[in-house]
Specification:
alpha/beta; five-stranded mixed sheet; about 30% helix; globular
Amino acid sequence: MKILSVSTAENGCSLALFSDWQLVCEDFWKTKLTHSKRLAGMISTMVKERAGWDLDHIDAFVSAKGPGSFTGVRIGISTVMGFSAALSKPVIGVSSLDGIAWQFAPAPVQVTAMMDAKRSEVYTAVYRFEGGRLSFKGEEAALSPEQAVEQAGRKGVFAGSGAQAYKDLILEMTKAKGVVAPNTTSHVKAGALVDSLASDPAVFEAAGQSVTPVYLRKSDAEIHFSGLTH
């Protein structure tokens, strides 16, 4: 099975190709270009030039479904849904937070994934792994960084763009019981999205050709509109 995985949940764009659940190639690009201007070209280059495949060789698609940038999430989902419909192949949406946390699956430590949600908030969830498998995942939520650290019990590994943005606060609140992961692991990794599915190789058999985005809170536009109507 050949899988194309995409994450446009944040400013950086992450792509990965898998064959029989083994990583073939992976790419991450963070520029001032919008996802709509670079995603199609990145996919074409990776599939055709780096892997030597044609798009119709892809058997299934994966997309980060949020939380994250409202526009970015929609672009990634609409792109893979377009490919899915055109090729009559299944697509699965995976939490953006999973694309952070699963980078640490081999380690028996608590992982708190934190994405910078702006407006002094983070999108976050707490994870625990045993033997490379997920043993616990807490509820996803939009919280203040202080609330996220408290929810984590002031311990474990904190990873993601939110952990980078509030690194000093995390270290102060955890009193050396918490570790902020390196910046190189702070993005939503397309390969990690697929890793989160690998324990169930038949996961695509019941999948359709649509993905519902998950935002956790209203967009700035919705909040602004609500304020105008009250």
